[in-house]
Amino acid sequence: MTVLSDIGHLLLTADLWHAALAAAVLLLLPALGGVISERSGVVNIAMEGMMLTGAFFAVAADLILHDPWLSALVAMVAGGLMALIHAVVSIRFRADQIVSGIAINIFATGITVFLINRFYGLQDVGHLPPSELLPNLQIPLLDQIPFLGRVLFQQNVIVYVALILLLLVHVLLFRTRLGLRIRAVGEHPEAADTAGINVYRLRYGAVISSGLLSGLSGAFLAIGISNTFVPNMTDGRGYIALAAMIFGKWTPFGAFIACLIFGLGQAIYDNNSIIHVSQYLLSMLPYILTLVVLAGVVGRSQPPAADGIPYAPGTE
Amino acid sequence: MVHSGLRVVTALAAAGALLSACGGTGSPGASASKTIKVGLVTDIGGLNDKSFNHLAYVGLQKAKSDFGVQGDVTESHSGDDYVPNLTNYASKKYDLVIGVGFLMQQAVGTVSGQFPSVHFAIIDGAGTDANGTDLKHSNVESLFFKEQDAGALVGVISGVLEKDGATPKKSHKIGAVGGVSIPPVNHYIAGYKWAAKMEDPSVKVFVGYSNNFTDPAKCAGVASSQISQGADVLFQVAGGCGLGVLQSAGQAHVYSIGVDADQKDADASVIASALKRVDVATYDAIKGVKDGTFQGGALTFSLQNDGVGYQADNLQLPSDVMTAVQDVSAKIKSGALTPPADIPDPTVP
Q: Which helix (H) or strand (E) segment is B299 a member of?
């Protein structure tokens, strides 16, 4: 029972929730990308690869430009280009979207390692000084609020950006004409096409957005939280984001709650030096939580009807 | 249309695999028939880990220039790559195939059984079956290190600094962040905790794991937790992931200790590094094949044969620290002190 009291004590500390929110945002950005892409009808499991590519180019750009903002932009473009490959393969050539996604993830691991060896040889990729990292931003006054100030208002700038994006994506998808069209294209592309909506263009845009968001998450990981690139440093976050998206029933806020649960699990796990239980059991925590919540609370998740089905006009 | 799509996908995957293969630095042009061919397969840490994969490569490079052997490298990107990467070199009749890291034990066990005429060496492990039992294939040389010796030396540094009140927070609390709880990692931590407590019996030693070797953010999380508990010297034993420990220590203005290679340049907070001379072991294994003295079985690299050690980094260590380190070092070499291989009192910090 000491374990539960250990975790109980932790849950009362602002530091834990601060760490949980940062960990959640790393997942939230690709998860939002996934929501947009899949709502338009293109299955996207390539967030992992896009994020890894973004992480690499963020570091590479920052080492040259000494400007974290421009580097984050470069990371987004890099992620977007990877997404463009996925878009071309799955929209234009109508290939299997799962296979294309896997290929992009493998490609991303390969190309990043290749580029490291090409440009840095066996030297360290290089470490960025704190002044060239995406900064932590203390919101004046609000950061003085007990507990909440630490959790919400002493975060990295990307955390605020992500929370704003969360709101924007929600509004875009469910409160705008463009969002309605994206969802229409993901549910019934033939009908949307008949109504004069350009299915291809919307799907391209949606998939590329997922790359931009995943790339930004890679930048946050590599030049916000860390200060260097390590091969495979994304460590499966793109896949966890995918799970969060499904868990959240393809909605931005649903995905955010899922990301928070995963992030909280990670933050609790980080304290395994002081929680007296097997670290392996502890590392299972977020996944056990997910299973329980998924089975008990969320119920059945229904993907968009045309998710994963290439659109070929006139074939039906 | 569908066909061309699949072609694009296949080409993409192939390009990825090819690029990562090119990532290694193959040396073509070894033509003489007597040239010894050595294939090195890294674990998932990759060649740029500034740690043991990198050091194995350094040893291979030295052997290439000293003996004119042909040396090729393949980096593994996931655990599933180990068997195919090892098999690739073995089936091409390389003279020596080296697997870098404990994580490759089972793969080396499997492949060495299939190619009894090829020599294998494995850093930090043996060729085992699925249960981790050493298969004792005569063509496998197991290169083990007494990491606890190196861990003990940096543990002495931390312990004496804490005893002297010479650490940033004077907290009598230190930490160690391991990658995964596996023997080579725990050996380091065991020596560290044992020696720190020997020098400063009041010191608390937090031991945590990131369950990861490649993601600095995960290690930074564990390090931050230990720092918030008051730890002011953090020892990283987690390869590329552990770079996050060094960075976190720097941000919090506490001390850190690097692992395997000299990590002085990774962060200003690095006061010392525990060294594991994987380069020496790799070089010796290649030399053994070249000289015909390859024996199979276990070779142990310790403080006694300079297989492990330590390096002072970004802090001028006080003279009593240096004296204590030299004293403990001499006693370990003479056998008067034996650092434990298992973490003492694992449930007590």
A: strand B297-301
Residue A138 contacts B where some CB pair is shorter than 8 Å? no
Q: Dump pLDDT digits (tens) for A94-107.
A: 999 999 999 999 99
**Residues 6+ positions from A78 with CB-CB distance below 8 Å:** A53, A54, A56, A57, A215, A218
Q: Which of residues 213-272 of A touch B (CB under 8 A)?
A: 221, 225-228, 230-235, 266-267, 269-272
Burial A92-108 (b: 16+ CB within 10 A, else e): bbbbbbebbbbbbbbbb
Q: Are residues B159 and B268 in the same domain?
A: yes
The answer, for A281 touching chain B at a CB cutoff of 8 Å, is no
Task: Quote the number of domains for chain B.
Answer: 2
Examine residue B47 and state whether it is found in any structural domain, yes or no: yes
Same domain? For B69 and B217 the reply is no
- Residue among B48, B78, B267, B343 with most chain A CBs within 10 A, to mutate: B48
Mean pLDDT score across all residues of chain B: 89
For A23, the 3-state DSSP assignment is helix
- Structural domain contains residue B262: yes
Pair (B164, B131) in one structural domain: no
Which of B56, B93, B59, B50 has its CA nearest to residue B74?
Answer: B56
- Residue contact B9–A96, C-beta within 8 A: yes
Q: Does one domain contain both B124 and B248?
A: no
| Closest chain B residue by Cα to residue A88 | B5
**Would you call A164 an interface residue with chain B, using a CB distance cutoff of 8 Å?**
no
From the candidates A100, A232, A277, A287, which should be mutated to test the interface with B, based on the most B CB atoms within 10 A? A232
As a whole number of angstroms, the distance between CA B136 and CA B141 comes to: 9
The structure tokens 């949606």 sit at: A206
**Which residue type occupies B235?**
F
Question: Is the CB of A88 less than 8 angstroms away from the CB of B206?
Answer: no
Res A3: pLDDT: 80
CA dihedral B204, B205, B206, B209 (to 10 degrees): -170
CATH number, domain with residue B215: 3.40.50.2300
B218/A96 Cβ within 8 A: no
A175 CA: distance to closest CA in chain B (Å)? 35
Every domain of chain A and the residues it spans? 27-256
Please give the average per-residue pLDDT across A294-298, as a whole number: 70
| Minimum CA–CA partner of B223 in chain A | A270
A127 contacts chain B (CB < 8 A): yes
The predicted pLDDT at position B4 comes to 52
Residues B115 and B162 in one domain: no
Residue B248 belongs to domain spanning: 147-275+318-334
Q: Which of the pair, A285 or A222, is modelled with greater confidence?
A: A222
Residues of B in contact with A273 (CB under 8 A): 175, 206-208, 222, 225-226, 229, 349
* pLDDT tens digits, B167-183: 999 999 999 999 999 99
Tallying the residues shown for chain A, one arrives at 316
Q: Residue A293 above 80 pLDDT?
A: no
Of B5, B181, B244, the CB nearest to A95: B5
Contact B47 A232 (CB under 8 A): no
Question: Does one domain contain both B82 and B159?
Answer: no
Q: Is the pLDDT of residue A127 over 60?
A: yes
Q: Looking at residues B119-127, what average pLDDT do you find? A: 94
> Does residue B173 share a domain with residue B44?
no
User: Does the pTM of the predicted model rise above 0.90?
Assistant: no
pLDDT tens, position by position, B232-291 = 999 999 988 999 999 999 999 999 999 998 999 889 999 999 999 999 999 999 999 999
Phi-psi region of B348 (alpha: psi -120 to 50; beta: other; left: phi over 0): beta
